[in-house]
Specification:
Two copies of one chain form a homodimer. By secondary structure, chain A is an all-alpha fold. Chain A contains six helices and two strands; from the N terminus they run ααββαααα. In chain A, strands 1-2 form a two-stranded antiparallel sheet. The structure holds a DNA duplex.
Chain lengths: ~140, ~140
DNA sequence: CAACAGCTTCCCGTCGATGGAAGGTCAAGG
DNA sequence: CCTTGACCTTCCATCGACGGGAAGCTGTTG
């Protein structure tokens, strides 16, 4: 099948498919006499796999790594479990950061009305927050 | 004072300071006879303000907008509160997404041991997740 | 005088796509 | 025959917020 149909089936932009091919994530497919890319169902599966893995938070580089395991006839599951472990830890950290930030934003909004009108400052709302805490690291 | 001292005081890379100047977030400072940038305490304040606003989740574009209010002698607080409102909504959405994903990762890991050894699949762990749910939109 | 830190400008790379332009081929319908 | 529309190639640009490094200047110290 041609690239457009693959794109429709998987729900991906055709540009994305060619991009994946370009970075070696998808193998170069066979070509029709016309020069059009000719994909098989396997390619669709592989693409779906990539999107699933991506949804689970894996980067394209990690996914490439997983696919490389297969080429070496090894099973990537141990590697994958390691990645997932790190994912969970990372998620926890980020969720905690976001919860803190949310807390602070709510408090900031709550006090915003009572803030003095000071024409010399950039923004009383933000500087109120600045006064209390001196620049902890940015949440990346 | 020179750029290195500013960087130390605020806790920012000198590259970042020059970058902010490049995108118009910081005004071009005076220059010493040597050509070195010569900053004032006001510049340090402005930079601190930028970092605080950034820590609150505002983009550099939004911060630039806030600073532009000041140039027009208007107070940005209403705008800022609107931004913060959207921030909170966005945080809630992202935290919910992350919680879902975390749930799924945990479940996946939990069942990983019991998964069949299937040499034809890319990775049993990931494809187990794929089988259950057919590609909801990616969490951005 | 030489070393070294700090500064300058300039350009490239990151991540994961996506958009667009330019210029061409191919297949189907009216 | 003509026109769509889908596809092909290559290349370049964009988003955000920087970081790295090269090559060269300044300023201080031993």
């Amino acid at each position: 099948m041609r690239i457009g149909e693959v794109a429709d089936r998987v729900g991906v932009n055709t540009k994305t498919i060619r991009y994946y091919e370009g970075i070696g994530l998808l193998p170069a497919p066979a070509r029709l006499p016309s020069g059009y890319r000719d994909y098989s169902d396997d390619d669709v599966d592989r693409l779906r796999f990539i999107r699933t893995a991506q949804r689970l938070g894996l980067s394209l580089a990690e996914i490439a790594e997983i696919l490389a395991f297969r080429q070496r006839a090894e099973r990537p599951c141990e590697y994958v479990l390691g990645v997932l472990d790190r994912q969970v830890t990372d998620l926890d950290r980020r969720m905690a950061e976001m919860a803190d930030l949310r807390q602070e934003l709510i408090a900031l909004k709550k006090h915003a009305d009572r803030l003095p009108t000071d024409p010399t400052c950039y923004c009383a709302v933000i500087e109120h927050s600045q006064a209390k805490r001196r620049l902890p690291p940015l949440a990346g």
